[in-house]
Structures are given as C-alpha cells and as structure tokens.
Amino acid sequence: MTETLGFANAAAALGIGLLVGLERERRKGEHDRRDFAGLRTFAITSLLGYVTVQAGGPLLLGFVALALGALVTTAYWRNLENDPGITSEVALFAVLVLGALCVSAPALAIAIGVVMVGLLASRQPLHHFARSQLTEAELRDGLVLLIAALVVLPLAPDRFLGPYHAINLRTICTLTVMLMAVGALGHIAVRTLGSRYGYALSAIASGFASATVTIAAMGDIAAKQPADLKVLSAAAVLSNLATLIQMALILGTVEPALLRWMWGPLLCGLLMTLVYASVLMFSVPRGQADAPIKVGGAFSLKLALMVTLMMTGITVLSSAMLDGFGQAGVIVTAIFSGLADAHASTASIASLAKAGLLPFNAIAVPVLMALSANSLSKCVVAWLSGGRGFAGYVIPGQVLVTLAWWAGLLLPSL
Known about the structure:
The protein is mostly helical. The chain has 2 domains: 2-129, no CATH class; 135-410, no CATH class. Helices cover 78% and strands 1% of the residues. The chain has 16 helices and 2 strands. A two-stranded antiparallel sheet has the order 1-2. Strand 1 and strand 2 form a beta hairpin. The longest helix is centred in the C-terminal third of the chain and has 44 residues, at 364-407.
C-alpha cells in the first residue's frame, strides 16, 4: 500500500513537471531567442524535488535549490540580451518546490500546478488587461475595496453599542464593503457584457446582498452617465427580483406553510417587476444601449458611506419603536425596520407566526407593510443618488410593484 502511494505521488510530481514544461516548451522560441528550459527540464526538475525530499529531506532540498539557482543565474545572464524576463526561471523553482510538495500533499501540489500553468498560458490576456484595460481609477478602487474587506472589516468589533444597542460597527463596515462590492460587480459586468445586459444582471445578483444598496449604486452611475438612464433604471427595478426571492426563501425556511398566504403578492410583484423593467430596457434603441462605455472608477466611496449611515439611523429608529411598543406593535415595527431591511422584519414576523403568537393568515399585512416601507426607502435613495431623471423612472416602477404586492392579496390562498 505504501509503495502504491509512493508511485502515485511520484506520478503527480512528474505530471506537474510535464504540464508546466509543455506550456513553456511552446514559448521557448527558436535559435538565438530560445529559452534554456522546456518540457524535459521542467519534468526532471519536478522529479528532482520529489526524490530529494524522499532521500534527504528539507536540508538536501535546500542545497539542491542553491545549485539550481546557480545554474539558472548562469543561464539568465547568457540570455539577458535576448530575453530579459525571468518567468521561466521562477517557474522552474516553483516546479522544484511542487515536486517536493508531492511527497506530503500531492493534491495541493497538483492544484497549485494547474493554477500556475493557467497563469503562464494567459500571458497575453493578462498583459493586455493590466496595460490597456485596467485604468488608474479602477486599480485605486480595487485596492480600497481590498483594504476595507481584508483589513478594516476583520478588525471592526462585532458587538452592539449606542442607544438601544442597535449600532454594530461590524455591520456598518459590512454594509460599506457590500455597497462598494456591488458597484464593482456592476462595473465588471458592464465592462464584460455591455450596458444593456451588464447592468441588469449585476443588479439582480447584487440585489441578493441589498436591493436598496443596488439602487443607490445604479443611481450614482446614472448621475455620471445620463445616456444610460433607462437601462440603469430598469436594472434598479430588477433588483426587486432578488428581494422577492429572498422573501420566499425566508418564509419557506422558517415555516413552509406561510407561503400559502404569500404566494399571490410574491407572484404579482415578480410579474410586475419583469414587465416594467423589460418595457423600460427594450425601449432603448440597440445602438444607443450598446454605445461605448465610459470607463471610470468602480464605485463611489462617498455614496457607500452616506447610504450606510442612513441605514444605521433607520435601524436605531426601528429599535426604539420595538422597545417602546413591544410585540403588540408588530406592524409599526415592521414599517420602521422595513425602511432599512425588509428581510429582518419578514424573518421576525415569520418567527412570531411559527411560535403561535401571530396567526398564519395574519402575516401578509405586516410583511407587505415592511416591503412597502422598504420600497419607500428605495424611492428616497433613488432620488438622492440619481437625481430627478433616475427617480422619474424608478419611483413609478417601485409604486407599480408595491401595488402589485397588495393586489396579490386578492388572490385566494392555496
């Protein structure tokens, strides 16, 4: 059994060397511009790493790496005038290490080897993206997003502070990062798919994080790109699809029987969202919708902070209402908490119904009150972020969707 595993690990090392060597062999060039390492060199180096660790352990591997470094340095200086890059040299060292890693973790070594080959094979697209596609503003915004998500967010304390213990710094940072990520997602989608479908798909996807935040992001873009006003407004309205799907998932998760009383509003809201957004989106001539996209920053940090502070204030207000009225004020609390997030209100109402504190057939009104309050919040955000033109398309759509929710109450329960 041990011998079988040893052969398998050695085969993994050989496979990594052959895979990387095959890619490098295709780029060696010819005659004077021919690189020093190809298929055989990489395969042998990978096996060398494996055999070295098996025979002498890490110490012997270190001496072999030093010897390989001397050989690579000599080859590099000999070809400096023809090929100043060091990609093949670094790849050779990586193959040596991956071959050694196959002794203890062959699966990890294979995965890293495949990723490395992918990077090596994508030389031209990656260089083109870095030099021609990526702008300074996009690079700056990407760094800001990474710092906020990987440095600031983990350091933010996850505890409730302030009046009514409603302020959570981790939540505030999460909302800010989420808004920046929504803007970046939309920016990438539009750069990839074009404005007609890119904005719509990114709005639906980011709507699962927060439809209100998505509308704010679309409005900020609309203020800068008025030519795409209708497409951006349609995308903002389409974010309601994510809200409705999440509402159904929340109700079904807490108590599946609750969907019996909510299927009508959810279905009517879904149909109205699709109809309104489709009319708005496809009323734009194809040539105008597919016009060249203005490249700028990926998101607005100022907008992210503004929306986050507004939603935090609403959360404090809704907490005060809950503290003052208790469970008897379910609808009042749903209205105020729905201004910030309808999902939390829906989950709370569904939990009350499952606990027997609220009849199943009485959940529709408070849930729709929360949705209506959230729709009002979206209208305000649309006006503040995108101005009169953007709000002129989004607000009627939100009104029609809200009316469709309430009209769905007229449909009989299942």
